[in-house]
């Protein structure tokens, strides 16, 4: 995923789209492998789009497709693909239907500029569409619009077997279970195990996230993790996040 | 900045460290230019560290320096720099002072493994240190620890002139002011102007963020932006975020 916008890098805005997309892709059986946040700088955006689209099956971008001078994403995508860009008739028609007479000024019409060969992504919130070109999906930065665009393109994405997940938590410090957890990981190379420490009310606790596409193996590894926590005096609980 | 961790990419955890660092760096007069989020995969981490440290003055990482098998950041950094890594005496001494007798097991001692030539970054929360090697600052992923580490290294960073910022907001759609805003940007190339639309209670509003190191130019451009909003019937207010 590529997040485009100075406001994220300056600390003015906390990005919400990467977190949303990460959760949705996991549900769809697609693994998000990298997120980059870059500023509104043409050369940087073009280089990042080309690096990501060459590396991954799908690329998703957010930000920079509005009507103002700092909205340069669509032009950057066209340059990254080496294609032309102009007002696209269908995108223009949608904007004309949306805006009252006289309101579709030149600036707003910029939102109908779509790279040649791209297909539109619906925007049920504020009409101005995103677009898909090659494996790159270009969407708005405003979270409500980004989420609606993801919803409209999700049925067209091809996911793998969903990654199943269980999260076991106990009031045992992670350094205490680290050696046994490492051995467990070696026994279950097909179950990905992550360890996340937390400190609440002065007490150390550890959340172990186990992930696999195989439910039987996942359940067996989870039972073994319960036993490890109990060996160190912790009473594990389970949290069904994700 | 490089955020390391499967939990962010799976959507289990919403990253908080990039947002925190972005705000702190802006205060210090340092511009954050890129954030990458990568999984706990050695080759990916090494490639990202080497790309970022060659491109930027400073690199900051978060995540992957705990005691468990999935904490591979320190080893990846050593490989990225082509140096050795071993238990460092001062880091070991700190951990020995922190843990009760018998609690400093082999797994926890991994947290004292520091690449050759690195200097330690203090961790007032849970002792296990971060480290700096070359222009790369390696810190913990737990937000409270990450923030404490940033506080301890901030005095040693060299910032430029602080970027001053004003944010003008009005209930005018951004497409309405886009053309005048574009002209204003051309008149003030030394003032960076970003436009951020919002939709609240069915009404469209626009926040214009103006940034410059020159207060007089910033104030003049801000006054001009007030005038533009008023011309379209909006009563601007100002928000002192960042």
From TrEMBL, chains A, B:
SUPFAM superfamilies: Molybdenum cofactor biosynthesis proteins. Pfam families: FLAD1_M, MoCF_biosynth. Coiled coil: none annotated. Residues 1-161 form the MoaB/Mog domain. PANTHER family: NICOTINAMIDE-NUCLEOTIDE AMIDOHYDROLASE PNCC (PTHR13939), NMN AMIDOHYDROLASE-LIKE PROTEIN YFAY (PTHR13939:SF0). This is Competence/damage-inducible protein A. The lineage of its organism: Bacteria, Pseudomonadati, Pseudomonadota, Alphaproteobacteria, Rhodospirillales.
